[in-house]
C-alpha cells in the first residue's frame, strides 16, 4: 500500500504523505488538508477523502473533520486536541468506535489502554445508580452475578 497520494492544486499535482497530514476539514464542496508546513484546498467531498485516507491512521470525528491519529495529543467528551487546534467531537462519530480507536493508537501501554477503555465503557453504559462500585458489587451479589 502506498504511503502517499497526489492532489491537484495550482495546476500541478502535489504529493502528500499520509504521515504529514494533521487533519482534514470540510469547506463547502472543498476539503482543506492541513499539514505542519502547508494547507491544501482540494475539490473533494469528505466522503471521498475518507475513502482515500487509511482507516488505521485517520478517524472521522465530526461531520466536518477527519483527524490523523498520530496528531492527537488529547481528547475528552467534546473536543479532540491537536498541538495547536481544538476539533469538536460529535456524538455520532464518538459512538461509532472512534473513541476506542483513539485509545488504542495513542497509548502504547496495553494495561493502561484496557483500564481507560473499561472506565470509559463503564461511565457511558452504566446507569448512574450503579456507577458506585459498591452498589454494583451489591447488585451482582443479589442477582448471583459473580466473576469467574
Describe this protein's structure.
Helix content is 33%, strand content 29%. The chain has 148 residues and is of the alpha+beta class. It has a domain of 103 residues: Beta Barrel (OB fold (Dihydrolipoamide Acetyltransferase, E2P)). A hairpin with a 4-residue loop joins strand 9 and strand 10. The chain is globular. About 4% of the residues have low confidence.
CATH class of the domain at 4-106: Mainly Beta
How far do the termini sit from each other? Answer: 43 Å
User: In order across it, which strands form the biggest sheet?
Assistant: 5-4-3-7-6
Number of helices, where a helix is a run of at least 4 consecutive DSSP H or I residues: 4
Mean pLDDT: 77
CATH architecture field of the domain at 4-106: Beta Barrel
Approximate strand percentage: 25-35%
Would you count the extended β strands for me?
A: 10
Radius of gyration: 20 Å
Specify the biggest β-sheet.
Answer: 5 strands, antiparallel
Poorly predicted regions are 103-108
| H/E element sequence | EEEEEHEEEEEHHH
Pairing-aware structural class of the strands and helices?
alpha+beta
CATH names the topology of the domain at 4-106 as OB fold (Dihydrolipoamide Acetyltransferase, E2P)
Amino acid at each position: 500500500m502506498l504511503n502517499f497520494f497526489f492532489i491537484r492544486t495550482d495546476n500541478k499535482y502535489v504529493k502528500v504523505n499520509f504521515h504529514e497530514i494533521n487533519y482534514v476539514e470540510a469547506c463547502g464542496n472543498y476539503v482543506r488538508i492541513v499539514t505542519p508546513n502547508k494547507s491544501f484546498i482540494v475539490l473533494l467531498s469528505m466522503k471521498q477523502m475518507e475513502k482515500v485516507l487509511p482507516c488505521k491512521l485517520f478517524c472521522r470525528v465530526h461531520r466536518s473533520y477527519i483527524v490523523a491519529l498520530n496528531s492527537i495529543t488529547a481528547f475528552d467528551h467534546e473536543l479532540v486536541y491537536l498541538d495547536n487546534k481544538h476539533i469538536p467531537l460529535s456524538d455520532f462519530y464518538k459512538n461509532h468506535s472512534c473513541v476506542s480507536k483513539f485509545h488504542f493508537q495513542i497509548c502504547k501501554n496495553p494495561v493502561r489502554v484496557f483500564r481507560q477503555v473499561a472506565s470509559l465503557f463503564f461511565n457511558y453504559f452504566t446507569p448512574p445508580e450503579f456507577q458506585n462500585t459498591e452498589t454494583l458489587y451489591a447488585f451482582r451479589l443479589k442477582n448471583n452475578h459473580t466473576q469467574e
